[in-house]
Each structure stands twice: as structure tokens, then as C-alpha cells.
Design a protein that fits this description.
The complex is a heterodimer of chains A (464) and B (327). By secondary structure, chain A is α/β, with parallel strands linked by helices. In chain A, 39% of the residues lie in helices and 18% in strands. By secondary structure, chain B is mainly α. Chain B has one domain (24-252). In chain B, 77% of the residues lie in helices and 3% in strands. In chain B, a hairpin with a 3-residue loop joins strand 2 and strand 3 (154-156). In chain B, helix 1 (3-51) packs across helix 6 (161-184) and helix 7 (186-196) crosses helix 9 (208-234). Chain B starts with a helix and ends with a helix. The chains are: A alpha/beta (464), B mainly alpha (327). Chain A binds chain B through residues 67-69, 110, 112, 114-116, 119-121, 123-124, 127-128, 140-141, 144-145, 148, 152, 171-172, 210-213, 216, 242-243, and chain B through 25-27, 30, 34, 128, 131, 136-139, 141-142, 159, 234-236, 238, 240-241, 281, 285.
């Protein structure tokens, strides 16, 4: 009996010690590079409508995205995000590359959301414009094309916005492609973990996603996550709709009849906007569990009540409160003041109020890329690969990003945010005016998911 | 033009095609391949529209089937060589045309056009919905592109854009020559007669539906060939690019701009569209608007298209020369 008690006690002590050491190592993780608050320049001349004119030899980044058509606003978001990071580096004097100081130039490459145009425009960027980096994009099917072209011409492709795991798996994996975003399986498991292990309220879920690689991967990730973390949950319906749908009524009618308590969706704008607006117009007040239903323009159109209770899983953020020190506030103010006082259409809309959420993540991806170029001292893809594989970088938010060497996927903790009315947003937005947006619900309670529960899926053929 | 100068012209053209990628580089070689693919596609449509008088708003179903045929063959058949992969696309479109022909050859005019619009859209929706076969909105991509090889003799890597340029140009030139030869045969003349006066051809003892069916199958199969080269070139086939409504309209517009009923008309049309597309995309994303405006202008001021306009100029020049020359 004594031996048993001793063994039990010893096991408990060892386990506790292990947990303490584990959490300590995660908290004390020292990144190889970090956002440089000290050298943050005066950004008052930044205007996304009038990029700084550059002459001579530059480091070129092509923002490959939908710059026209129904998803044009996504291209705008990418453009300002990449341009902001490039402008910051240019104001710091540029980057020393192969013994020469070079400025960073950003070019638009319009995919028109079509795969064949994507291929053509990427080839034009590489062969004609001589860009060093392809930065994309909205749509995993388009990112696949970007990665293929990058692989063919041996250029670095930065995937900051396409979330399908398959992009970084055999047979699509390319050593020239780096994924600096969260991924579908990770998102699905993250939300399943949140509902099953933390929130423990709703049990009936309806999956509604876009009918392409990304949408199906999102659904698969969530189903897998529910099996793992929430076996009691029930999927009461599952549908996939075509991209850029304008009439969601048939799907919403089915959702209403299904008895669902939560609608799980990966839709991005314009689909996310149309889905939410039509749901509320039809009197369906169910909460959505999502990743892109955070765009304040349509959230404001729906209003405070209609957006209350949305559960948004975010890749950018470091838990509450959002501002933890004065340096962060200074960087934030640099953006927010320009938004208030300087920028013109379309960058003066409510969407661009804060450099947070997905905008924060896209800026962060570009900071990281430029930090890698600085440390590599070259735009040579082989040198970039060498530095970026296994690299760690700390964003202005304090969040640390890690690039897994075996499959070039980003590893970072995820945050689940619950949207609450402006009066309750102070817990998150802890500086005046103490709310994110006046006309809609937004981030209130914020839950950091344990890193080990949301490690991105790894292809065993690549990661032993 | 005598035979000698004609030969000299062809040889100069062949030399220009050979030197083109060396002179202009990979990017413009790729643009030329795109032009060549659409030229073949438009010529195949012109067999129906210009030569037989059948307007199709769903010709993309053959282009798309050819593209998917090659893409799926390369995805699922390990080690499939290049030429059989190409022929897989050609025959996929060929068999589809054989199946559809009995349903459409007895109608003409608006009915023919509308039936094809419906069939084209049906194929498009099937490509979107049969995700496990076609990849849905993502399409079929990243399949291996086999080398062009004769065992023991040579093996050319088709991943090299310059080598692929030569391969694509050779395949498309051979296809265009076959189609040109076809229009010059006696059967080709019957085809034109069907367009001009169906009843008279019928009274002469020719079977009009059978004639139409043969033309239809050939047009479909060569559209499939264009699709097959497209699949190899893009290494990706997606529903919107292969079966989309614009993919059906593009060869119609190219044919009308280039010149209906003339063999080289659609080729000129594809060239004009290629140049316009390349120039306009550098300044605006409203490419379709510019192409639409050009179509409107052509219909208003040059209804016989670019080649028709050239013929008109040549005739006027000959007439004025005849007037000036002493009697």
C-alpha cells in the first residue's frame, strides 16, 4: 500500500514538474528575430493610394490577388498590408542585399480569381517584372498555381492567406513555398476544441462552406476535431456552395429546419457578408463559428444585435488585453492616425481602422519575410530557404511565429474570440475609446488555445 | 503569288517560328502558345460556323473535355507517355461529339445554338459538381507532364517552356494543316454547300444530317486537341477555364473579328485577341470590355472581319491599279 502511494505521489510530482517546465519553455521561448520597436520609423507619409516612388534596383514583391471583380476588396486588404511593411523597411533605409542597400517595391498582380490568369500573371511577374517574391492569395486553388509557377522558376512563394493543408503536402509541396498562415485542419480542430473542451454549451453544428479545396478542407478539419475533442457533438447538416454566391436562402432554409445551434463556416468575403446579412434578414439569429466573419463593413450593416455571439477564430492576437505595452500602442497609433486623418477611398472605410485581425496577420507575414531577407542578406531563394526553415519571429503583438522546417508551415497559437457589444469590448480593446467598433459587436472574451492542441497537420511523407 | 514565292513564305514563317522563343524569351513564347491553342480552337469552331453555317454557343464542351481527358489520363495512368496523353484528350472529345451529334445535326439556326448553350452549361455544372473526378472548382492540376521521348533515341523534357513551345507549335500546326486539307477536299465543298443551300444539297442526293455529323465530330475532336494542349501547357484544368460560358464565346468572337468562313480568319482573330489582351491587361482589368468594343466595331464597320477587310483593300488596290494602267 505504501509503495502504491509512493508511486502515485511520484507520478503526480513528475507530471506537475513536466507541465511547469513545458509551460515555462513556451513562455520563455526566445525568437531568432523580433519586430524592432526601437527603429520603428515615422510613417506619416504612408499612403496606400500613393506608394513611395522607387528608382533603381529594388527587392520586388508581387501581391498576387483578386484586385478586380467580386473579391477586389480582398486584394485591397493584401495591398495595404504588404505596402505598409515595405514602407516601414524603406523608411528604415532599405535592406542590405548582396552588398547593396535596396528598397522594397510592391507590385499588384491581378488574378481576376481565375486559375489560368493567375498562371499568366505570375509568369509575367517573374519573367517580365523580375520579382523576387510572389505573395498570395485568396483561394487555395489559385495559391496552388502560384506555388507551381514559383517552383518552376525557382522563386519564393509566400502563402499568407490560403489555408488548405494540402498546399504544403505531397504531391503539392514545393520547397520554394512557405505558408505563413493558419491552416484548415488546425482551424477545424481549434474550434472543435473550443466548443468541446472550453465552452461546452452547443452540441448541434451545421457545416456550410465554399465548394472548393479550402471549403472541403475546413469541413474535414472540423469533423476530425469534433471526433477528437467533442464526441458528443452532432453534425446536423453539411452543405457546400459555389464561390461568390448571391442567394443563400436555400441553404439558410435548410439550416433553420435542421435544429442547428451553431453554423460552422469558412466563407470569406463577399460570401461571408452575404451569408450573415441574409441569415439575419431571414430571422435566423444562430451564432456563426468562423474565421473571416470579422470584416467591420458588413458587421456594421448587420448591427450590434445581429453580430453578437459570433465566434471568430483568429491567427493574429495574443490574448486579452490587445495592448500590453506602450510600444504596441505607438505602432497602433501610427496606423490609426493615418486612417483617421490621411487615407482616401477605399482605405478610409471602417475596415481599415485597426491593423489587427487578418490585416494584422498579413502585415505580420510581410514583416517576417522582410526580416528573413535581412538576415539572409540576399534574395537568392536558396539562402532564403536556409534562413526561413526553422525560423522564429516575434510580431508586434508579442505573438511568436515558427516556420516548421519539414513542410514550411507556420506554427503559432490561435485565439478564439467571442463577439460582444461595444460596451463590453473594453476587456479586449484597453485604450480609448475602449471598443473596437461602435456599430457592431466585436472581440470581447478572448481564449488562447493551448499550442499542443492546434499544431498544424504534418504530412508524414515530409515530417518524420 | 506563284508557287516559288509561296514556298519561300512558308519557309520564312517556319524559320520565324523556330527563332521566336530564342529572340523573345520564355514569356512571349508562352503567349504564343496560348495564341496557337486558341487559334486551333477557333478554327475548329469555324468549321461549324463559317463553313457549315452552324452557330454553337457550347463549343467549350469539346475544348474542356479534351483538356480534362488529358489531365485525368495523366493523373490516373502512371507512366503514360506524352503522345497517348494528348490523344486521350482528342478521343475524349471525339467520342463526346459522336454521342451528341445525332441529337443536334437535325436542327440548325437558333435551336442549334441554344441546344449547345444548354449542353455546354450542363458540362460546366457536371465539372463543378463531380468534385471527386474533376476536382470541382479547384480543377485537376499538378499532374506529371511526361517527356517527349523515343526510347533509345531521345527524351525531351516538356517542363522546359522552350521545348514545350516547339512541341505545342508542331502539334497545332499539324492539326491546322489537317483541318485546312479537310476544307479543300470534295467533302469540304459539300460542307460549304450545306451552309449556302441545304435543300439543294439534299436534292442533289447528299445526306445533309450525315454531312453535318461528320463536320461536327471533326470540329469537336480538334477542339479537344486544342484543350489537350491547353491542359499540358497550364498543368491545370479547372471548370471555369475549360467549360465556362466565356470559353464558348471566345472562339465565336475570334472568328467574327478575324473573318467568318475564311480558313485563316479565326487565326487572325486569335492573334488580334491575344495582342489586345496582352496590351489591355497591363493597364486595366476590363479586358472583356475592350474585346467587346472591338467586336461591336468589327460588326458595324467590317462585317467580314479582319481577313474580309484585307480582301476588300486588296480588291480596291487592284481596281485602282487597273484603272491607272493604260488600256
Amino acid at each position: 500500500m505504501k509503495t502504491m502511494r509512493f508511486l502515485f505521489m511520484a507520478t503526480a510530482v513528475l507530471c506537475s514538474l513536466g507541465l511547469v517546465l513545458q509551460s515555462a519553455s513556451a513562455a520563455d521561448m526566445v525568437p531568432k528575430a523580433a519586430f524592432d520597436f526601437k527603429n520603428f520609423p515615422d510613417m506619416s507619409d504612408f499612403d496606400p493610394n500613393k506608394p513611395m516612388p522607387l528608382k533603381g534596383d529594388t527587392i520586388k514583391i508581387a501581391v498576387v490577388a483578386s484586385h478586380s471583380g467580386p473579391a477586389a476588396s480582398v486584394g485591397e486588404i493584401y495591398w495595404i498590408s504588404v505596402l505598409w511593411a515595405a514602407h516601414m523597411v524603406n523608411k528604415q533605409g532599405g535592406i542590405m542585399v548582396d552588398g547593396k542597400k535596396k528598397m522594397v517595391e510592391v507590385l499588384k498582380a491581378d488574378t481576376q480569381s481565375k486559375p489560368d490568369i493567375t498562371k499568366k500573371v505570375c509568369e509575367r511577374m517573374i519573367l517580365q517584372e523580375k520579382v523576387d517574391f510572389l505573395w498570395g492569395t485568396n483561394g487555395s486553388h489559385l495559391q496552388k498555381v502560384i506555388n507551381q509557377v514559383a517552383d518552376k522558376y525557382k522563386k519564393i512563394s509566400v502563402n499568407a492567406a490560403s489555408l488548405s493543408d494540402e498546399l504544403q503536402e505531397v504531391p503539392d509541396f514545393s520547397r520554394y513555398a512557405f505558408m505563413t498562415t493558419f491552416s484548415t485542419e488546425q482551424i477545424g480542430r481549434g474550434l472543435a476544441y473550443y466548443y468541446g473542451q472550453i465552452r461546452k454549451k452547443e452540441k448541434k453544428f451545421y457545416i456550410l462552406c465554399q465548394d472548393y479545396l479550402f471549403g472541403h478542407s475546413m469541413a474535414e478539419g472540423f469533423k476530425k476535431g469534433l471526433k477528437e475533442y467533442y464526441p458528443d457533438a452532432e453534425i446536423v447538416g453539411e452543405d457546400y456552395h459555389k464561390l461568390f454566391l448571391t442567394d443563400f436562402a436555400p441553404y439558410l432554409t435548410k439550416i433553420k429546419a435542421s435544429g442547428a445551434e451553431v453554423v460552422y463556416t469558412g466563407d470569406w468575403i463577399p460570401d461571408a457578408a452575404n451569408l450573415l446579412k441574409q441569415a439575419r434578414q431571414m430571422g435566423i439569429m444562430l451564432p456563426f463559428a468562423d474565421i473571416f466573419m470579422d470584416e467591420p463593413r458588413f458587421l456594421t450593416e448587420v448591427g450590434v444585435e445581429g453580430t453578437k455571439g459570433i465566434i471568430n477564430l483568429a491567427q493574429y492576437g495574443n490574448g486579452n488585453p490587445a495592448f500590453k505595452n506602450d510600444d504596441q500602442i505607438k505602432v497602433y497609433r501610427a496606423w490609426n492616425d493615418l486612417w483617421k486623418n490621411k487615407w482616401k477611398e477605399p482605405y478610409n472605410t471602417v475596415l481599415y481602422t485597426h491593423p489587427f485581425g487578418n490585416i494584422g496577420a498579413y502585415i505580420g507575414s510581410t514583416y517576417w519575410l522582410l526580416s528573413v531577407v535581412t538576415r539572409a542578406g540576399s534574395t537568392d531563394p536558396e539562402k532564403i530557404i536556409k534562413v526561413w526553415e526553422g525560423d522564429t519571429y516575434q510580431l508586434p503583438s508579442g505573438q511568436i511565429l515558427e516556420m516548421r522546417a519539414c513542410d514550411h508551415k507556420q506554427i503559432t497559437p490561435l485565439t478564439v474570440n467571442e463577439f460582444v457589444p461595444p460596451a463590453e469590448q473594453k476587456q479586449s480593446f484597453n485604450i480609448p475609446p475602449y471598443y473596437w467598433f461602435e456599430g457592431c459587436s466585436n472581440v470581447g472574451p478572448s481564449t488562447l488555445l493551448p499550442m499542443d492542441k492546434v499544431v498544424p497537420k504534418a504530412d508524414p511523407k515530409l515530417c518524420k | 503569288m506563284n508557287n516559288k514565292s509561296r514556298w519561300a513564305l512558308w519557309i520564312a514563317g517556319a524559320v520565324a517560328l523556330f527563332l521566336y522563343p530564342r529572340l523573345f524569351g520564355i514569356y512571349y513564347a508562352n503567349i504564343f502558345v496560348t495564341f496557337a491553342i486558341y487559334a486551333l480552337y477557333a478554327v475548329s469552331l469555324n468549321l461549324l460556323l463559317g463553313y457549315t453555317g452552324l452557330l454553337s454557343f457550347g463549343h467549350a464542351m469539346y475544348f474542356g473535355t479534351g483538356a480534362y481527358g488529358t489531365a485525368l489520363a495523366l493523373t490516373h495512368i502512371k507512366g503514360l507517355p506524352l503522345v497517348p496523353a494528348l490523344l486521350a484528350g482528342f478521343f475524349a472529345a471525339f467520342f463526346l461529339a459522336i454521342c451528341v451529334a445525332p441529337l443536334v445535326v437535325r436542327v440548325g439556326g437558333n435551336a442549334f445554338a441554344m441546344m449547345h448553350l444548354a449542353f455546354g452549361q450542363l458540362m460546366f455544372v457536371l465539372a463543378l459538381k463531380l468534385r471527386h473526378i474533376t476536382g470541382g472548382e479547384d480543377g485537376v492540376g499538378g499532374f506529371p507532364i511526361p517527356p517527349l521521348s523515343i526510347p533509345g533515341l531521345f527524351s525531351l523534357d516538356m517542363g522546359d517552356p522552350i521545348l514545350f513551345y516547339y512541341f505545342a507549335v508542331a502539334v497545332i500546326a499539324a492539326s491546322l494543316w489537317l483541318l485546312w486539307f479537310f476544307t479543300k477536299t470534295p467533302f469540304g465543298q459539300i460542307m460549304v454547300a450545306v451552309r449556302d443551300n441545304t435543300k439543294r444539297v439534299d436534292y442533289l442526293g447528299f445526306r445533309v444530317p450525315h454531312t453535318k455529323a461528320v463536320v461536327y465530330v471533326i470540329a469537336g475532336a480538334f477542339a479537344g486537341m486544342a484543350g489537350a494542349v491547353y491542359a499540358l501547357f497550364q498543368n491545370l484544368v479547372a471548370a471555369y477555364d475549360a467549360y465556362g460560358i466565356l470559353t464558348s464565346f471566345v472562339p465565336v468572337m475570334m472568328t467574327m473579328v478575324g473573318g467568318i468562313g475564311q480558313f485563316f480568319g479565326p487565326i487572325c482573330g486569335a492573334g488580334i485577341f491575344g495582342v489586345l489582351d496582352e496590351l489591355t491587361t497591363r493597364y486595366t482589368d476590363r479586358v472583356e470590355l475592350v474585346l467587346g468594343l472591338v467586336l461591336v466595331l468589327v460588326i458595324m464597320y467590317a462585317p467580314y472581319g479582319f481577313t474580309g477587310f484585307l480582301t476588300y483593300l486588296r480588291m480596291r488596290w487592284s481596281a485602282s491599279r487597273a484603272q491607272r494602267s493604260p488600256a
